[in-house]
Specification:
globular, 284 residues, single chain, mainly alpha
Length: 284
């Protein structure tokens, strides 16, 4: 694909943001081409069974890789691959081959990404962040394609929040704030994971009091972390704190607007972030 080649050339020329935009365009065209090329033969049960067998071998390799590089990102990729494989198997039983193929393709993408990922590495290079942003945008495009806004509006709202976090990550990247950009890609992936879970099964509704308690818990945890880190220099923790404060503000705004579910999920991710920062602080 010409666009993919141009994206590679732009990245080599030191223009990763333009490369990312070009890559996303090529990826959309590829998805469209795959849809147009898919006939009944490619959706046959025998074909999908062979795909499942191949995926099983890849998952075996991925589990071995995880033992060597047990990073949180690799664990998340493996879990998402296994979840999508499980969904595909259920859909196969229902003879819903087209939907099963979508989940198999997602599982293949996640496991391939894990096998490409060398694991946790020291430092944060410009190239690594550009790659993470490209992967993130691919994941968001897949979610936007898979989740119907009319049929599952709450899951689609979470995808929109992930998209917003991705845009913020790109802005941080352009300003050279690489560590903050990486943190935001993880936030975006967390919202995508929540959207994926909601897409597969309905989450229980949350009450106004539950939302208020969750927001208050996040507010108290932020204050506690601020007190623990006062007068210390810890850039990663400060980045997490800044993002947690932003999520708190968003949660309060959504609660005021009567959007309880989204407010709860925003606060929930904020709580996860602060817990992560607390673990980092208490390890020092």
């Amino acid at each position: 694909m010409n666009q993919a080649r141009k994206a590679e050339e732009l990245h080599k020329a030191g223009n990763p943001v333009m490369a990312l935009q070009m890559f996303n365009g090529a990826y959309r065209l590829l998805l469209r081409a795959l849809d147009l090329a898919s006939g009944n033969a490619i959706l046959s049960e025998a074909y999908l069974r062979s795909e499942i067998e191949t995926l099983g071998e890849l998952l075996k390799q991925a589990r071995e890789r995880l033992q060597l590089s047990p990073s949180p990102q690799n664990r998340l990729l493996l879990r998402r691959a296994e979840n999508n494989l499980g969904s595909a198997l259920q859909l196969m039983k229902q003879k819903r081959f087209k939907a099963a193929r979508v989940h198999l393709r997602l599982a293949r993408a996640f496991v391939s990404r894990l096998l490409r990922n060398p694991g946790a590495r020291p430092g944060t290079s410009d190239q690594r962040v550009a790659e993470e942003l490209a992967y993130l945008n691919k994941d968001i495009l897949e979610a936007e394609k898979r989740i119907d806004a009319a049929q599952n509006p709450r899951a689609f709202e979470l995808v929109k929040v992930a998209r917003q976090a991705a845009r913020k990550a790109e802005a941080k990247y352009r300003r050279g704030r690489l560590q903050a950009a990486v943190q935001l890609t993880l936030v975006a992936q967390r919202f995508l994971s929540k959207a994926d879970n909601l897409y597969k099964r309905q989450m229980p509704r949350v009450s106004q009091s539950q939302v208020a308690q969750h927001i208050q818990q996040l507010r108290q945890m932020i204050l506690e972390l601020e007190n623990e880190t006062a007068g210390t220099e810890a850039p990663l923790v400060q980045n997490i704190l800044a993002e947690a404060r932003d999520l708190l503000q968003q949660a309060e705004d959504k609660k005021s607007a009567g959007r309880r579910f989204l407010a709860y999920q925003l606060a929930d991710v904020g709580i996860e972030l602060v817990r992560k920062a607390m673990r980092l602080t208490r390890q020092d």
